[in-house]
Amino acid sequence: MQPYRIVATILCAIGIPGLFYLDRHRGSQVSKALWIPAAWLFVIGSRGVSSWLGVQPRFKGVIVAKSYENGSPIDMWAFTFLLVAALVVLIARSGRVGPLLRKNGLILLYFSFCAASIVWSDFPFVAFKRWTKALGDLGIVLIILTESNPWEALKRLLTRLGFLIFPLSVLFVKYYPGMGQILTQSWTLEPTGVATQKNELGLDCMMYGVFFLWMMASVYRERQDPNRRRRLLAHGLIVIMIIWLLGQCQSVTSIIGLSSAAAVMWLSRRSRRPVIVHSFVLAVLGIAVTALFFDPGGGMIGVLGKDPTIHGRTEIWSLVLGLHTNP
């Protein structure tokens, strides 16, 4: 396994820059500040900086709630650095940030309410840290929206992240099980890739899968683009990696979500009647709502291979409600 692992690592190290090279496009000039959202979203979509460095804190003799409250100092400083960097960029772009904030007063009202809720929180310091981190999310969005071409900036951002997340995930799952798989409570190996558990990996595959399928459709229509074929190759390789990873992690929710989105995109391209596309979207939403709220027997969920009792939780609920306490 060792020689194959070395070869795979070398190919991955060459392949990631190769994907960026294949996808180069003269018309996609974005600012260097876009690397701040890229770093932020990469950590959010994979694992913490302390986990990447292998220096996760150990709280000896500390209860779980206390360790959750303390968190990781390394992760805290990493997010603080990115938050300050985003703030510097937004101050420099204050002329474009101000009008955006004034047009989104409800968002500011929401964050103001979240700040006020810190006062009555049982863990005010933890609530303050979470609120500050949420402000970072707002700052990341504002950096993208204040680019000279926000739509192009968003495409470049998600493309960069996809070119990093999925080749690394394939490498970890296939050749570095100590990094790309975890041992579950049922003593089975669960593929996680760059994420921390299989459902997070499935979520990454679903979200980026929708984006890269859309990018392939968009690039395919650009008949006059001389770089069209190599860009299609780069995006197609990522789609193949996503399909393989979904097959490994078997995240049924993500598979259904990606399949439904792909079907909607295919219909929107093929059908000239919007009513057909709208009807299909409503049908998908209707099935999801029915399975969640109007299928007490769990038959629809069981068809998907899911446990309708949520691993025994519904049985516990019936027992607790049977105690005749305040529901």
Short account of what is shown:
This protein is mainly alpha-helical.
Description:
The relative contact order is 0.08. This protein has 2 domains: 1-27 and 161-272, no CATH class; 31-147, no CATH class. The N and C termini lie far apart (56 Å). With 327 residues, it is mainly alpha-helical. The radius of gyration is 23 Å and the shape is globular. It is built from 16 helices and 2 strands. It has a two-stranded antiparallel ribbon.
Overall, the morphology is globular
What count of structural domains? 2
Structure classification? mainly alpha
Give the overall pLDDT as a whole number: 83
Number of continuous helical runs: 16
- Our Rg estimate from Cα atoms comes to 23 Å
Using DSSP, what is the number of strands?
A: 2
In the sheet with the most strands, the strands line up as 1-2
Strand proportion, as a percent range, falls in under 5%
Q: What string, H for helix and E for strand, traces the elements in order?
A: HHHHHHHHHHEEHHHHHH
* Low-confidence regions: 59-64
Helix amount: over 70%
Distance between the termini: 56 Å
Instruction: Characterize the main sheet.
Output: 2 strands, antiparallel
Question: What are the main properties of this structure?
Answer:
two-stranded antiparallel sheet, single chain, 16 helices, globular, 327 residues, 2 domains, mainly alpha
